[in-house]
């Protein structure tokens, strides 16, 4: 018996599914289709999916403490509301001096700060950076020189940040203290047979789950960077992972169909029975514009 199932969406498949997010307030799992571009929502009460077209590529969403979401668009960050109707607010520019860049992945830590990465749309230039947007809205550049930034995810104690450069098949670990991050070294490196490390999440035991782009699976790593478990999936380009539900024990996994002669599974959303639970999602409390 398989330990995964496909969430049915009447034949809809994502071009580039990403940005996996659990929102307890809405009892819903959100994720983005970066290049469609679109925002998706799965209501856990009904298991029905809604989908909204977005005005430009959308790399990630986080929960805002005052209601709605915050989205990382190609041109910057903006508030998003979908109830009772879709409203996307004005976008606050992040890299106006780099028009070829876009947002790719982002998440909040235990303080509500947003950590997010930018990248070259063509995936050829190492023009991407890792940013931190603090709970009061202050922004700082944490690291530079990324080809395809992914992750990020955090240890349960919020002392460690894990962040990936997929183009280099490398996951880095950063030490966190008072909103600052110091690169601590390499957490893990993927072999060619592994594909490329993509989105990540952390479970309640501090183990890191990593999606395999061009690897067709997800893997669980111990806090010291040792792979301890792998779950195979029928999609080839697995992109992101998040725990959801009241007890954070339902795992959802996104995938992509871009660049493939797609099967019925490429670009699907999966629910995976992994036997462990994750961490609560912390809303971002700060200003957006």
Automatic annotation (TrEMBL):
Residue numbers annotated as active site: 198 (proton donor/acceptor)
Residues that bind a divalent metal cation: 18, 150, 198
Keyword Glycoprotein belongs to the record: no
Obligatory cofactor(s): Zn(2+)
Cofactor binding summary note: Binds 1 divalent metal cation per subunit.
Record keywords, A-Z: Metal-binding, Zinc
Family statement: Belongs to the SMP-30/CGR1 family.
MF (Gene Ontology): calcium ion binding; gluconolactonase activity
Protein name: SMP-30/gluconolactonase/LRE family protein
Residue ranges occupied by any SMP-30/Gluconolactonase/LRE-like region domain in the UniProt entry: 16-257
Coiled-coil ranges from the UniProt annotation: none
């Amino acid at each position: 018996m398989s330990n995964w199932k496909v969430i049915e969406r009447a034949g809809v498949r994502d071009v580039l599914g990403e940005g996996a997010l659990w929102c307890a307030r809405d009892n819903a799992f959100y994720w983005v289709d970066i290049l469609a571009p679109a925002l998706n929502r799965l209501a856990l009460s009904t298991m029905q999916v809604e989908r909204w077209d977005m005005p430009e590529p959308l790399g990630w969403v986080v929960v805002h403490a005052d209601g709605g979401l915050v989205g990382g668009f190609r041109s910057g960050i903006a508030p998003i509301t979908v109830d009772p109707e879709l409203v996307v607010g004005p976008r606050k520019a992040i890299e106006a001096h780099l028009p070829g860049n876009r947002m790719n992945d982002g998440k909040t830590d235990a303080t509500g700060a947003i950590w997010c990465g930018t990248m070259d749309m063509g995936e050829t230039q190492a023009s991407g950076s890792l940013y931190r947007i603090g709970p009061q809205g202050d922004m700082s550049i944490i690291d530079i020189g990324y080809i395809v930034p992914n992750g990020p995810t955090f240890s349960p104690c919020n002392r460690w940040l894990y962040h990936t450069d997929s183009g280099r098949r490398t996951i880095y670990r950063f030490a966190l203290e008072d909103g600052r991050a110091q690169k601590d070294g390499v957490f893990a490196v993927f072999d060619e047979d592994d594909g490329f490390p993509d989105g990540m999440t952390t479970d309640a035991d501090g183990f890191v789950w990593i999606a395999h782009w061009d690897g067709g699976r997800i893997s669980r790593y111990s806090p010291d960077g040792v792979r301890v478990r792998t779950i195979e999936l029928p999609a080839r380009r697995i992109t992101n992972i998040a725990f959801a539900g009241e007890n954070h024990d339902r795992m959802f996994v996104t995938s992509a169909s871009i660049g493939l002669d797609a099967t019925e599974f490429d670009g699907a959303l999966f629910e995976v029975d992994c036997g462990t639970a994750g961490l609560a999602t912390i809303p971002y409390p700060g200003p957006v514009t």
